[in-house]
Design goal:
Helix content is 52%, strand content 14%. The chain is of the alpha/beta class and 411 residues long. The longest helix is centred in the first third of the chain and has 23 residues, at 2-24. 45% of the residues are buried.
Amino acid sequence: MVHLARGALALTAALLMTTAASAQQRVLTFTTDNNDPAPKAAWEQLVADFEAENPDVDVQMNIMDREAYKTAIRNFLTTDPPDVANWYPANRMAPFVSAGLFLDISDVYAENDLTTKLASTLPIVTQDGKQWMVPYTYYQWGMYFNRTVYDQVGATIPATWEEFLANCEKFKAAGIDCLTTGSSQLWPIAGIFDYLNLRTNGYEFHKALTNGEVAWTDDRVRATFAEWAKVLPYTTANHAAIDWQDAVPLIVQGKAANYVMGNFAVAAFKEGGMTDETLGFLPFPTINADVPRAEEAPTDAVFIPAGAKNVDDAKKFMAYVARADVQTKLNAALGQLPVNADATVGEDPFLKAGFEMLSTTPGGIAQFFDRDAPAEMAKVGMEGFQEFMVRPENLDAILDRLEKSRARIYQ
């Protein structure tokens, strides 16, 4: 009986200690749409690591379906906001900031030197001179090419648009498409437009255009299409009938030389039989040397809702997600690129090239046309891009139509 009593007392004491420890833990709520298996596992590991460093914080993560999240975020930010959530910078961020639904985290940036460490994405998380989000991952777009056909025709890796077009003549003479793409799903050609516009007019102009602040009939927009017109004779003719994956074999088989695409396509190239020796990557060539180099890199970020209950721990979590070591580990699991310039990537040559390119970008990081522009404008814009590629003589009518859409959509 004495032994039983002692055992009961010990159990009671242990339960009391556990209860006391639990009572001392602060709850941090985190709502996210990272519901695919790899991102979900990566974030669960990040949360576990954060809790290990901060045993007084209990992170309760609510993982939602990605499409449902896009609608839900507009509701939960006003009714029952979590302490931390994820979303997208630039134009997707702007209306929430303007509505007072995001918390200013400029102090987190100042205290952790993030204006330096996250410098490449600073413009897209800054509004009204303040910072509102911490980016944790992105991936590069650029030009992927078949090294074998470059050697075959004696083409050199181009640094400028003039050099690229000179190569196109060599590829044409050999019966090879200089540039391939698939536009049946529209979005791949938005990447081509963005890069031509970024190289012709720069990031600030891209931002102003997608914000509805510039007329589509502006001469600077026409200058972008004038550069595009130069490469149309060398572009895969049936692009409107194929999607992005249908264009991959053209590169693999050497029927096309170059492809403007995101880094996720590397897996498809390699599944087709290409290797690190036959597949190459290069930044989109320079068109206007006076325009600082800007890049296309869709970015994901976390933020603190204005109605967060546990702001102190939320800011601690922001600083943690921004750390170089944390972003290195997270992105190794995601197969993408860390934003922190002090982070590291593995030996994959395309990730290494992308990390170097994005970390040293002086002109800004664009978020892709259909992220930076409102959904309706993105749709009519991309339809216009496809029509231009098929019927470049329709440019005036296309730009007039896009300008009428701008006047209506951005009211």
